[in-house]
Every structure is written in structure tokens, then in C-alpha cells.
Amino acid sequence: MWLVFALSGPVLWAVSTHIDKFLVDKYFRDSDTAVLMVFTAFIGVAALPVIWAFDPQVMALSATAIGVMTLSGILYMGAMLFYLRAIQREEASVVAPLFQANTLFTFALGLLILHEVPSLLQLGGAGLIVTGAIGLSLDHSFRLRGFKLRLVALMLAATLVLALSSVVFKFFAVHDEFWGTTFWTFVGEGLFGAAILAMPGYRSQFVRLFRRNPGAVVGVNAANELINLGGGLGVRYASLLAPVGVVSAISASATFFVFLFGILLTLIVPRLGRESLSARNLVQKAVGGALIMAGVALIAAGHG
Fold it and tell me: Does residue 31 sit in helix, strand or coil?
């Protein structure tokens, strides 16, 4: 079942990516991406009483675990904020491949902190997934456009923080409780959102968005963040059942599902889809998808 949970993340994140694109184009075109993170924080905060009612022992964690997991939630939000800003300012074909560094960092940190040694099959599968994800992100000339050293350095820092957050989550979730660890991670995310709202400029943008389209902005964002939350919980739970590096590698398949859903949208709802349906593009996506699926199969075999 760990593979089902691990795949739930990239599938749901791909759906969320298309919703994010719709939201940015329709409602957030003139707003900072930090405002989007406030909605993410609100959903996490809304989940706190539900988790507490489900498992009252969330308050029983050690002070060290509470502090580290709250910091982990803050770091996660910070890394995702940079990623959103990078996507907003740079070509997706440049940013997306750099995001795959998260898999490499997670393997390394899993080995150093959790002493998880991946098998050769798992390493081979991870390599195929990352290769396929990068291949899917190349432009029609099979080149990465707009390569910038500063962008690379910042994206590597962001993916390192994400990898550290994943490894730390597993370390404390294994030693304590999954829901307790999740609870305090959401507390950290909520604190990050509160810090954004404390800044007058972001607060005014947030209020302005509510006044313009309160129902649409809140409703679509809430649904989107619940989808995103479901993917995140699935991946976190999978990381308790399998090496975090392996789960991270499978998460890289989100690139494939983003393109797959994009093609389906282009065919079914052309006004919402923007994928090229040229033979060359479809062949490229098919090859990338085949590499990713082969990588997932190798990882599953290696873990079995």
C-alpha cells in the first residue's frame, strides 16, 4: 500500500498545479505569490482542531519534537514560497528540472540521518524517474532556456530545505506519532502565514482579493488546498513505510502527471489547456512518461 500513498502525492499535486495556474491567471495576476501561501496556512490551521479531536495525544510530544516540527513547517512554507516565485518569474522549463534535486538531497539525508541504504534497483529507478522528469521539462528544442546561476543556487537551497523537512518529519514521526508530528508541522505553517499577514503590503493584497471575489477565491482555494493537503499527507505517510529517498523519487513523477492532465484539458476543455499536441511534443512526453513509470516499477521491485 505504500506505493499507492506515494503516488497519491504526485497525482493530487498535478491536479493542484493546474488549479494554481487557473487561480494565478484569474485572481492572482497582480498579487504576490506570498498571498497564495496564506491560503495554504489557513487550511493547515483549520485542520488543527480536527487532528486534535482525532488524536488528543498531539500535545504529548516532547518539547524538542514540537520545536523541531514547528520549524520544519516554517521551513517548508519558505521553500515553497521561493518555488512559486521562481515559477512566476522564470521559465517553467528551467525551474522544474532543478526541483528534481530534492530527490538527490533526500537520498543523501536519509542515508546520513536515518541510515536508509537504498538498493541498486531503487537507485536505478530513482535515476529513471529524475531523467524522465527532466526530459519532460525540456523545451521543443530539447534545451533548458534561461539558465541562471543565482536561480540554480536558490533552487538548490530550497530543495535542500524541503528534503531536510521530509527527513526530519520521518525521524520524529517514527519516534513519536504521525498525527502529532503532522499537527505541529501545520502549526509552523500557520505561523508562517500569520507572519505574511502581519506585513501591511501583503495584508492589503489579501483583503483586496477577498473584496473582489470572496466566494470564488475562498471556495476554489479551499478545494485546491485540500487536494494539496491530501497529496502531502499521502507522501508523508508513505515515507514511514518506505525510505524517504524512494518516496521522494516517486514524487518526481508529478511532472508527468502535470503534462498528462494538461493534454487531457487541451483535448476536453481547450480554453483551460495549453499543452502542444504536436507529434514531437507527444512523443517527448510519452518517452518521459515511460521512463518515469519504469522507474516506479523498479523502485517497487527493489522495495519488495
Answer: coil
